[in-house]
Amino acid sequence: MDFASLMSSEISKKSNPTPDAPVSESTKSYLKRADLEAQRQQAYLDEQAALQREREAKLIQKRKRDDDESVRSRERDEKRRRLAEESRLRREEDEDKKERARRKRLGLPDLPPRDATKEGSPLAEGEEDVSESDVIAKLRSIEEPVTLFGETHKQRLRRYKRLIAARSAKATTFSSGLISTSLDPVPESDMLVPSTLPPQKTPERTLIFRQLSSYFNMLLKEWSQALSTRSEAVKLSFQGKAALGAMQQSLTNLRPLFQKMESQTLEESILEPVLEI
Question: What pTM does this model have?
Answer without folding.
Answer: 0.39
